[in-house]
Amino acid sequence: PLPPRAALSRDEILRYSRQLVLPELGVHGQLRLATASVLVVGCGGLGCPLAQYLAAAGVGRLGLVDYDVVEMSNLARQVLHGEALAGQAKVFSAAASLRRLNSAVECVPYAQALTPATALDLVRRYDVVADCSDNVPTRYLVNDACVLAGRPLVSASALRFEGQITVYHYDGGPCYRCIFPQPPPAETVTNCADGGVLGVVTGVLGCLQALEVLKIAAGLGPSYSRSLLIFDALRGQFRCIQLRSRRPDCAACGERPTVTDLQDYEAFCGSSATDKCRSLQLL
Amino acid sequence: PLPPRAALSRDEILRYSRQLVLPELGVHGQLRLATASVLVVGCGGLGCPLAQYLAAAGVGRLGLVDYDVVEMSNLARQVLHGEALAGQAKVFSAAASLRRLNSAVECVPYAQALTPATALDLVRRYDVVADCSDNVPTRYLVNDACVLAGRPLVSASALRFEGQITVYHYDGGPCYRCIFPQPPPAETVTNCADGGVLGVVTGVLGCLQALEVLKIAAGLGPSYSRSLLIFDALRGQFRCIQLRSRRPDCAACGERPTVTDLQDYEAFCGSSATDKCRSLQLL
Amino acid sequence: MAAPLSVEVEFGGGAELLFDGIKKHQVTLPGQEEPWDIRNLLVWIKKNLLKERPELFIQGDSVRPGILVLVNDADWELLGELDYQLQDQDSVLFISTLHGG
Amino acid sequence: MAAPLSVEVEFGGGAELLFDGIKKHQVTLPGQEEPWDIRNLLVWIKKNLLKERPELFIQGDSVRPGILVLVNDADWELLGELDYQLQDQDSVLFISTLHGG
Ligand SMILES: [Zn+2]
Ligand SMILES: [Zn+2]
Q1: How many CA atoms lie within 13 A of A215 on its CB side?
Q2: Glycyl lysine isopeptide (Gly-Lys) (interchain with K-? in acceptor proteins) cross-link position in this chain (chains C, D) (predicted)?
């Protein structure tokens, strides 16, 4: 966590003037954003717009985690990267773009996969976590690290023309394991390479995810704790569904948790957190 | 309009592979995008994410209209610009960012206000128009130009924590004047400088606007013709409301239109299309 | 004699700023001789909810240009505008159009 | 004897791909001795709507892990899961969780 600050500079007042005049945010909320730190897990289709709008809004520190390098097939949705940066680590490409937009935001690139060995220590260094990853083992890993470290988790996902977003482990609400105690069978999971995705759908979801992070960081509270917003881009339909409460018998956040350390999530899920060439599945 | 194309290149197949595998889009849809041209009116909070995702998706030509220059107070939401470009025309700053992302997209910058003298000729050169402007006279001007030129208009707006999006003059649906035959009294109109806006709200709306443009350009059809999607970012609520049909007595698109040429929209609305320092109003 | 009606009146797009910033109002309209229509509702709102600067909301006997009126999420133009007769449990939304970007 | 029920069955998040890509199904469940609950509905879906690869949707007598069941937009866990007794005009949504980004 960053040290508290008493006042905004003249430059900050000018730069953030359009949001400072919002009574719900104001100088108090802006100071909270300026001293907030957010860990962005994944700098792909969701992480790019998310990091872009968090940096623009003046969040103090952004941790960027991604082991992957920029490929041409990323550029139809991963808008922080550019053609000239193909082959570079995504976190460095993203950090360079964010610096152009707002040099006052401290970007910390982690050019590595999030692993059970590193996740807890990393998550503890940030106030809020955004899960922008693209595979099941990482989603369980991020969840368990957030529960163990006591951090709120804003989680989004997108595939084809659809997107989903919710907030886990916030103010007594459920965690990912409360909703999904068991991982899906590996053969039922589709990734973006196989199933496809329309880039701007990740744009809509990444922006909504940034909004939830900003509201949590500014003290306004999120809208999607205990609920899940689903978006159907072909029909232009949003639908908010009510999720269950925290489960007292949850393995991670329940009254007698069995997940007291991070585990082997690839074994638990029967799939890889980094393999990009899984075979085509139906859904 | 751009000339039709028979096939995608190897590079295009690689770059757009994630969206090519979507059966609703496919090679046919991608070819339509590659030969589509979109006029973006305003390179501010809406125009930046919109142009970013249209360029990423491979739209053939983007016309960028804005008379304004980049200021530091823009950067909390106008994410295509950067600190180093303060003082430059927004259209050049935006075009440079878009070129970094996708050099195959032809960006045509128009560093000028859209005026009754130029609008019709400009709109006629494009297939779809996105209204990303920030004032009432420009919204009537863009509408009338689209009706006279027979172009669909995707219109979005944002203020404070709220956003609205709809599609005008598409497939027999209403135009802006069908819904708003008379302009609002000038003293009831609030701009972003006075009322404030949270940057990521323009991000959400700009992405939804890009989605509607892409669906129209690809032949999938929009979702918000004859309806208006309203977004309340504080509550996380989307609501889709049903609008009236086209009015037979509409001055622009009706059976006996009185708007047969573009007019003096500043006089019609009693307000300026370029004045950035209007006095504070209540709403 | 029309029975009392329970109606949800909502404001959005900034129109709520004329109503103490409150977006949702659960309203009970008293029984009266004539049926309740939107024309009457506007008079009732002006008297009971709208405390100052009514000209920013009302013009003549209707709403000012730039405010959309939605009855149960449908444009009031589809339902007869001022003459629409309110039903119990109806929701009426007044939304100010945004122009910012 | 339970009367026939008219129920909306919806699939999303990719689950619709097991049902010819059709998201919304208006379904009439015939009258039967026992009341209709979700357990029975799953059997009915397997027999009448789900033509191939049932293991991608059903596991044992429930849905497979990773599919959320929503009754009238609320998590079925709030309503008794498999034992929830369907009402006429209920909407039941089966949504496959997405993991892409
Ligand atoms: Zn839990
Ligand atoms: Zn019209």
Answers
A1: 24
A2: 101
Predicted confidence at residue A228, as pLDDT, reads 98
Question: For strand B227-232 and strand B237-242, is the pairing parallel, antiparallel, or unpaired?
Answer: antiparallel
Q: CA-to-CA distance for D38 and D61, rounded, in angstroms?
A: 10
Residue with tokens 């996902």: A157
CB contact under 8 Å between A203 and B53, yes or no, is: yes
Q: Which of B232, B223, B227, B212 is nearest to B163 (CA)?
A: B232
Distance from the Cα of residue B252 to its chain's centroid:
19
ipTM of the complex: 0.96
Q: Region A60-83: what's the mean pLDDT?
A: 97
Report d(CA C53, CA D58) in Å as an integer. Answer: 61
Region for A72 from its dihedrals, namely left if φ exceeds 0, alpha if ψ lies in -120 to 50, beta otherwise: alpha
Q: Residue B274's pLDDT is what?
A: 77
Q: Which ligand is nearest to the CA of B146?
A: 2
Residue B90, Ramachandran bin (φ over 0: left; ψ between -120 and 50: alpha; else beta): alpha
- CB-based contact A66:A44 (threshold 8 Å): yes
Homologous superfamily (CATH) of D5-96 is Beta-grasp domain (3.10.20.30)
D12 to A232: CB separation less than 8 angstroms, yes or no: yes
- For the entire predicted model, the pTM comes to 0.97
Determine the pLDDT at residue A275. Answer: 54
B273 — pLDDT class (breaks 50, 70, 90): confident
Looking at every residue in chain B, the average pLDDT score rounds to 95
Could you please report the per-residue DSSP string of D13-53? TTGGGGGTT--EEEEEEPPBSSPPBHHHHHHHHHHHT--S-
**Cβ proximity of B197 and B163 under 8 Å:** no
Please work out, in degrees rounded to the nearest 5, the angle formed at the alpha carbon of residue B169 by the alpha carbons of B168 and B172: 125
| From A135, A136, A188, residue closest to D64, measured CB to CB | A188
Residue whose C-alpha is closest to residue D78's, from A46, A241, B64: A241
Has residue A276 got a pLDDT over 70? no
How confident is the model at residue B283, as a pLDDT?
Answer: 37
Residue among B191, B211, B192, B197 at smallest CA distance from B50:
B211
Assess contact for A66 and A42: CB atoms under 8 A. yes
Q: pLDDT: is A187 or A96 the higher one? A: A96
Q: Is B87 exposed, middle or buried (0-12, 13-18, 19+ CB in 10 A)?
A: exposed
DSSP characters over A67-131:
--B--GGGTTT-TT--GGGTTSBHHHHHHHHHHHH-TTSEEEEE-S---TTTHHHHHHT-SEEEE
D1/chain A closest Cα distance in angstroms: 32
| pLDDT tops 50 at residue A280 | no
For residues B68 and B92, the answer to whether their CB atoms sit within 8 Å is no
Average pLDDT, chain A: 95
Could you tell me if B177 and B252 are in contact, meaning their C-beta atoms sit under 8 angstroms apart? yes
CB A38 within 8 A of CB A129: yes
How remote is the CA of residue A253 from the centroid of ligand 1, in Å? 4
d(CA A208, CA A211): 5
Give the DSSP letter of residue C88: T
Tens of pLDDT, residues C5-39: 999 999 999 999 999 999 999 999 999 999 999 99
Q: Which residue of B has its CA nearest to A25?
A: B198
pLDDT at B255 over 80: yes
Q: What is the pLDDT of residue B281?
A: 37
Distances (CA, A) of B104 to A8, A69, A231, B9: 42, 22, 30, 12
What's residue B277's pLDDT?
43
Nearest to D64 among A136, A184, A244 (CB): A184
How far, in Å, CA of B82 to CA of C80, rounded? 50
Neighbouring C-alpha atoms within 13 Å toward the C-beta of A30: 24
Least CB–CB distance from D101: residue in A45, A187, A230: A45
Cβ atoms B19, A197 nearer than 8 A: yes
The candidate with the shortest Cα–Cα distance to B154, out of B142, B138, B163, is B142
